[in-house]
């Protein structure tokens, strides 16, 4: 059986890395930041590793570096970025955003209000705004967008920031 030429192997590896990177980026919820710049840098490094397939592969160390680079930059890092994009506080904020949008649509509102977000967070057992402490007794982020959403009402951090433009939600860590 004849082996593939180095050029075909390099193009195939680069193509697979590109497909994995784009698929992993699109798998992230559109209401979250998809970190396209970081994903682009990762794809660039994966393609650089794929380009190493064009070089002489007689040395064992070069084969190991190429394989590890392709595995890390082409598969492990893009999949990890997608998996880690939704920590528990962000999942809670996404659920609150969905509930608040549904409530606003049922009420016939054109935009989601802060009161809708607050009601949705409290219905799920969470709270809106920063947690008041002795140092900072004032509650911040509870009366205007971006709203701080906490998954547990008796706990401060971790939290996420939720904002709406009309009915379109945007969730980010804050």
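^ structure tokens above, recovered residues below v
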């Amino acid at each position: 059986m004849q082996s593939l030429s180095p050029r075909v192997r390099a193009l195939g590896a680069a193509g697979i890395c590109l497909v994995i990177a784009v698929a992993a980026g699109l798998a992230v919820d559109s209401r979250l930041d998809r970190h396209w710049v970081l994903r682009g840098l990762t794809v660039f490094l994966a393609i650089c590793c794929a380009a190493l397939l064009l070089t002489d592969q007689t040395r064992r160390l070069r084969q190991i570096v190429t394989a590890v680079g392709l595995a890390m930059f082409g598969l492990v890092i893009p999949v990890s970025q997608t998996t880690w994009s939704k920590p528990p506080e962000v999942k809670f904020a996404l659920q609150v955003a969905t509930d608040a949008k549904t409530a606003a649509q049922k009420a016939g509102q054109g935009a989601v209000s802060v009161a809708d977000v607050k009601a949705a967070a409290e219905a799920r057992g969470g709270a809106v705004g920063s947690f008041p402490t002795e140092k900072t007794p004032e509650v911040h982020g509870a009366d205007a967008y971006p709203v701080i959403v906490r998954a547990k009402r008796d706990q401060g951090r971790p939290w996420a920031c939720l904002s709406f433009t009309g009915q379109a939600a945007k969730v980010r860590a804050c």
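The mean pLDDT is 83.
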